[in-house]
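Teaching assistant here, posting this on the class forum so everyone can see the example we discussed in section. The complex has two components, and the goal was to see what a joint structure prediction looks like when all of them are supplied at once.
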Amino acid sequence: MSFKAKLLVERIDWVVVISYLVLALIGIACIYSVEHRSTDATFFIMKNNYMKQIMFFGVSLVLALIIILMDSKVFTSIPFLGYAIGFIFLLLALTPLGKGVKGSHSWLNLGYFSFQPGELMKLFTSLTIAKFLTLQDTNFATLKHRLICAAFAIVPLVIIVLQNETGLALVYLSFFLAMYREGLPNIVLIIGFSILILTMATLLIPKTILFYILSGLAVIILYTERKQLRRRKEILFVVAGIWFIGVLFSQVLVPFAFKSVLKPYQVQRIYTMIGQETPEEYTGGGVDPKKQNASEYNVSQSKIAIASGGFFGKGFLNGTQTQYNWVPEQRTDFIFCTIGEQFGFFGSSILVLLYMFLLIRIVNIAERQRSQFTRIYAYCVAGILFFHLAINVGMTVGLAPVIGIPLPLISYGGTSLVIFTILLFILVRLDADRQMVLR
Amino acid sequence: MADFTQNRNVFIKILFVAVPVLIIIRLLFLQVFDIGGYKEAALGQAVYIKKVHPPRGIIYDRKNQVLMNNSIVYDLVVEPKKITNDFDTLFLCKLINVPIEDFRYQLKKVINKNGWQKPSSLYKNLSPSSVARLQENLYDFSGIDLIEHAERNYNFGCGGTILGYINEVSESQLKNEKYFEYQKGDYIGINGLESYYEEVLKGIPGVQYLLRDVKQRIQGPYKEGKLDSAATPGKAMQLYLDADLQKLTEKMMANKLGSAVAIDPQTGGILAFANGPSFDPTLLTGSNKGANLSKMLNDATKPLFIRAIQAKYPPGSTFKPLTALVALDEQVITADYGFPCGGGYYTCGRRIGCTHSGGGHARNLAYAIANSCNAYFCHVFRLAIDAKQYDNVHVGLQRWSQYMNSFGLGHPMGVDIPHESGGSIPDSNYFNKVYKGNWNSCNMAIIGMGQGEIELTPIQMANAMCIIANKGYYYIPHFVKAIDADSNHPMLKKYHEKKVVARIADSSFEYVRAGMQAVVDQGTGKIAKMDDVVVCAKTGTAQNERMINGQKVKLQNHSMFVAFAPRDNPKIAVAVCIENAGYGATWAGPIASLMIEQYLKDSIREKRKYLVKRMEDAKIIPNYTYILDSLDKQNAKLKAARKNRSADSIARENFLKDSLARRKDSIKADYVFRKIYNY
């Protein structure tokens, strides 16, 4: 067969690999720029985070090499087992074996190191969804199989919400992108969009007024459609049903979600993002005013740092805001500020374009696959990357709520870097065997 | 899979492009167009603009001795939360030489006051040896730091009222537009030269741009210090003041109420300027400055009251030369004019006493001055204001007050330290008010002998001597000779202006000067006689009356002495006033004469050293000073109580009234006892 004629090295998609290397190195440089002091005698200060990140990068490269050298069939055979193991880890994190970090219980302590099973689960969920959809018995057109597929994403999401790590949990919504590509009907998206608009309206418009607006809309629709109505009585039921769901959603479900599901500070962050004050009923009297200000403070400091970069930035290691800890969590969630400040609009746009380029590249890779498994897996990876990018950069520039997820490959953090490495290199490995039909 | 999903990758690609583009547009607005003004916020946050305080100008005396300079003092500042377990308190206490119990107590106090987090100063103004020891070992102590700040040194231990002092600029000053250049923590001159020449002395602050982190810790210079500017020190000033003379004068003014001023008549430069009771100016520095100041402000003897320019005294007989000058210039008398004084002046229907009787002690002007005949000068004053050429006493008095104004009396002269008062010279309007238009020269005859409605400040008296010494002109008395070696500095312009007085003929001055020489040679001022210098002087014993509870109470006389020397080419003019000290010749005279001797000879003759000692040791502060002071304070309380009247305050007022009446009696008693037992 023709693919055997080519060497593995030739079959690897070097564009993705180089993009990966560039982003990871940018990440190390950014963390270095945060921690570097002009008084430092040497670059090799082991207690500094950039040295740790270099270590993680080394580990990641080793893992990447192992993945490339593995048989790609492995990845199609492990998903369900992996998902089960990951799931157990996920549950273990909720037990006393888990380690509480800043109020979240998403960490699992394994003696020598600790990691977030939720991060690992992203990998297994991607593989599992890809595997499930490519099973002989699966028919994605049926509601049953659609629900099962959605459950693969939703169940870990719920558990991670229980672990108090909402940001990470929300990443699991990105799997719907792959499902959409595989034929999830448009109606689901329309409903999703409607829910989003209704949620926004619920946040922005007082409950009672929203009730009148919805009722008014229903009456107007019924009035304009009155001729049709005489002939087809079911329109009445459809409109009444939509009206009922809308009212139910805005009057009951959103308030319930805000009161009981989301933490007061998360509600507050959502309101902060849309520039509204949090209504008292959602603060539950339990919001720590310091925390309340903290998320506003983080965003405004982040915006200050990015804006101060100007067009070309202040230059590498010349950041005044990011070097002196003005921006909280700037090594992890707010790492984008260091680019914004030091390299300005020029540098940060290039970085965003680099991500965009990588995303498009992954979509192109997905579309050139013969193997449906690889394609679905590729869309899962693209979805995760996209979600991280949009939310992380969005929150640093004030476009998205502060939900605390890392910028892929750049933010400081071992688990995150390793998982993204594995995600990408499994894709690269699978893509290398694209001439083979995998099941 | 079904074909209808094939185009969905296009939608996904559109999404993958749209969101990054949205982010880039947002970045464009944030970073390039700076919507929201975040850039400015960044500068304000991370770049700390540090003001570099310049050293204030150094002040030299006339012999280029440093009167006042700066020193750096160190405070021990502690940041309690940074103190670690291995903190060696005992060692630290040894280094700074304080008992360990005190250190613990102070530490507890500042933690209670400022909290655990904030750095607070534990010990202020550490001694240089402690600083040296601590600086070597500072790295051993985490949470301990030495903070430097500037302090002014009064090198001669004198001149507190002249130099003033510096303080941190106050909240109310910061609100005032006048002080817009100042920031919290800046120092500003208060009182004296420090205040008047603030503009000159303060210098131009430098600016350092520093980077700081989120915990406000300084991390280093911003842009390698390219934007920084150095501080320009305040300009140096040279004074006319003679530090040695000033020191001697202040010593002699210790424990006395009053003032002694010496002026160089040829320039108007002030050579000495002492106010009694004199105080140690180091009280105006250091950590106890605030407490010292409030103590001095509340002191009954009012050491911060700059008597030389603020206190108004009836000049007494020291005014007589001026009365004579006016009369001579108005040609109502000649130098040979005599008055048959028999121990009093009776013309106005009441007796105005004279210490001499008969013997022709007022046979001419010189004799009258030398013997200080009251009757003579009351009469001469009346002659002057009743002069024929004005045919009306109203016009005559107006003319007289014009003379006085040209002598620099009746208004602040413009000395270069703040809070100068003007004394008072009555004009016809004043008497019209008092006597409802119905008055004549008899009502005010005693003005001629320096009593009654006129009041002069000591510096005005000294300036009057300058006029006589110069034969008709003076310069506004002032302290500063040159600013930064430039004697033509704009701030000094008005002091170069020669003030010519009423164009009085030289001969008139000569007659008066002859009289004043006679005062020293054979009259009341013999104490001032010098072997080889002709001294002209005039003694004065000013009657001291005070309104107490609506009644005039006579208190102990003020002792006055004015002089200038040498008669030809005069170099120094002096006015000394000692409150409640009796005859001018007993206290004010010796002080003035010693000042003249010190200045002209640069030392005091051995045989007069005893006199210096006597002056220094004498305490002339009558008990009623304290009683009067508490009376004033009670009156002030009474006024405040009246302002805020209530049933309660009326009861209190009645009580105060009673106690005031009792006090009045005690003052009378004190005065009587003083007279009888002469204590």
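For the discussion questions: The CA atoms of residues 96 and 127 of chain B lie 8 Å apart. Chain B touches chain A at residues 1-2, 4-5, 8-9, 12-13, 15-17, 19-20, 22-24, 26-28, 30-32, 34, 36, 38-39, 41-43, 45-47, 211-215, 219-220, 222 (CB under 8 Å). Think about how each of these relates to the inputs above.
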